[in-house]
Amino acid sequence: VLFVPLLANDLQVPVTWFGAVEFAQVAAMILSGSLVVLLARYSPAALISVASLLLGVAVGLIAVAANVWQVLLILFVVGACITPLQAAIQTIMQTTVPNQLLGRVGSALNTTIMTANLSAMAFAGGLGSAIGIRNVFLFAGGMTILAGLLAMFMLRKTSQEEEIAEGLAT
Fold first, then answer.
1. CA 26, CA 3: separation in Å to the nearest integer?
2. pTM: predicted TM-score of the whole model, two decimal places
3. What is the Cα–Cα distance from 98 to 119, expressed in whole angstroms?
């Protein structure tokens, strides 16, 4: 929602650059999707934490981007974080939720994500007018970093849990 005003008003480039900006993100999502198999050796919890932290930093960096080329690079990083993050979230859901509940839990997860996306878009314009577009990106980046830190804390396994998991695997 705020990229068009950022590009047109702050960076003084035609809004037609929005297509290139979106392409940078999508290209990175496709590339990281093809490389996500290499990340499978890491725990989904670690991927969620690291991807969320990197995503938060990248979103926050949009606030200090001085030109559209920097925005393209930052959005490439954003796209590279999104696919492994989504894959790790789905992995945790599919490995921890009983089969008979997967459909309902998946629906609830998707509903929550869509509600958060729509709510964020609904409030972005007003928040951008109130505190400035760049400050909204700083705020969103900070919130995402906070989510990554919470994930790191909440999804960590204790050594006892790891021993139990290893025992079950053998």
1. 15
2. 0.85
3. 30
